[in-house]
Amino acid sequence: MVPPSSTPPPNPQQFLSSVLSQRGPSALPYSEDTKWLIRQQLLSLISNYPSLEPKTATFTHNDGRSVNLLQAEGTIPMPFQGVTYNIPIIIWLMESYPRYAPAVYVNPTRDMIIKRPHPHVSPSGLVSIPYLHNWIYPSSNLVDLVLHLSSAFSRDPPLYSQRRPNPNPNPSPSPNPSINSSMTSTYGQHPPPPGPRVAATAAAAGYPPSPYGRVQHPQHSQARPTSTDDAAEVYKRNAMNKLVEMVHGDIIGMRKAREVEMEGMFSAQAVLRRREEEINKGLKEMQDEKEGLEQQLQVVLMNTDVLDSWIRDNEGKIKNLGKKNNNVAVDEAIHCVDVLSKQVLDSTAADLAIEDVVYSLDKAVQDGVVPFDQYLRNVRLLSREQFFHRATASKVKEAQMQAQVANMAARISHFVS
Questions:
Q1: Cα separation, 104 vs 129, whole angstroms
Q2: Please, how many CA atoms are within 13 Å of residue 153, restricted to the half-sphere of its CB?
Q3: 111 assigned to some structural domain
Q4: Residue 384, domain member (yes or no)
Q5: Biased composition, Polar residues: where in the chain (predicted)?
């Protein structure tokens, strides 16, 4: 069952723009790329048939699902035997509209009955005409649908009026009203207030249930007869609609193409950013390596300068040693350049000598040549002396390191300048 639909605002354009622009849970279940076309078709429909009003209402599917949809409710003109009647209908724009046809229901009032059997209308009010079966997107539209509905209903009216009770207590028997006579006599009359519609017969016959449970009072504003429409105007209107649809389709295609192109450009931009990061990282590593190589080059240049200075200072000594009958004294072959180097040499030699003595004492104790108590006494004295020599060598090396650092700083300033 469908509750009565809310009354739309007086301006259909504002109403459609409002409901079709909603987002979130309250949004209508139509595709975003078709909402513009839906709005245009509804505006064109109410422009040609003012008796139809766009509304929103809840539609219940056969599986129990309920969804809020757009509908056009009101009356459409039906010429019959030279008289134009108003047929109450409801056009539901389903979720798949406009790619698929809408659902059209005849909405009879309480004093009207659906003709059974009817070739295009089921007992539940569902309309089925060839135009709905042959719906082609985007050329098919609501205005042409109403034209085909009026044409089909004029050939075989889907409704006829019930005969009201005769107030005369002794009426003469009369036959059942025929469709044509009842149509001629009662379609032009003002119908009584609406009432609930009985759908038990339709349900028992297996037809789909009507989406409305309470019929609405039909509007009796006279629509323009379709028979008087100018063929040139109809052709012009159809041509304009098709042109608008073609332009709209082209715009959608161009937008999708641009979206694909933008996605490709965004992907290429992401790849370029990753490559930029890799290049910057590699450049930084190369700069760090260059700085390290420059520092190593400075150290090599300083060491080369030191070696050149040493060779120049000791070249004459080597020549003098070679003139003494090739008899080179080991003690005179190496000369310390300063006092600190002489101290390091003496301390290192004494340390190594004590190592040799301790090794010899170990062998003597193992062979039983030296008593164990004497071994311990000598090892203690030698260890104390060795400690002093090592401490002296350590202090001298520290002083040499400080002097070397000062010398390197002076050489660096020399190379930089």
A1: 10
A2: 31
A3: yes
A4: yes
A5: 218-229
List phi, psi (to 5°) of 216: -100, 155
Residues 38 and 147 occupy one common structural domain: yes
pTM of the model: 0.41
Whole-number Å distance between alpha carbons of 296 and 290 = 10
Check pLDDT > 80 for residue 84: yes
Beta-carbon contacts of 88 under 8 Å, excluding residues fewer than 6 positions away, are 74, 75, 106, 107, 108, 109, 215, 216, 218
Q: What are phi and psi of 368, to 5 degrees?
A: 80, 15
pLDDT of residue 278: 94
Domain membership of residue 169 (yes or no) is no
Helix, strand and coil percent figures for the chain, each rounded to 5: 55, 10, 30
For residues 340 and 347, give the distance between their C-alpha atoms in angstroms, rounded to a whole number: 11
- What pLDDT score does 302 carry? 87
The answer on 151 and 52 residing in a single domain is yes
137 and 57 in a single domain? The answer is yes
Q: 257 lies in which domain range?
A: 234-299
Neighbours of 375 (CB within 10 A): 17
pLDDT of residue 242: 86
The single-letter code of the amino acid at 93 is L
Give the Cβ contact number of residue 132 at 10 Å: 18
Hey, how many other C-beta atoms are within 10 angstroms of the C-beta on 77? 21
Cα torsion for 180, 182, 187, 190, to the nearest 10°? 170
Question: Is residue 38 within 8 Å of residue 70, measured between CB atoms?
Answer: yes
75 strand-pairing partners? 88
pLDDT of residue 414: 60
What is the tally of structural domains in the chain? 3
Q: What is the pLDDT of residues 378-398, one digit of tens each?
A: 999 999 999 999 999 999 888
Question: 193: which 2 tokens?
Answer: 């207030």
Spatial CA neighbour of 92 closest among 101, 80, 83, 82: 101
Contact by Cβ (8 Å): 8, 53: yes
Same domain, residue pair 293 and 343: no
Phi, psi of 392 (to 5 degrees): -65, -45
Q: What percent of the chain has pLDDT over 70?
A: 75
Kindly give the pairing relationship between strand 53-60 and strand 112-114.
unpaired
Q: What does R_g of the chain's alpha carbons equal in angstroms?
A: 55
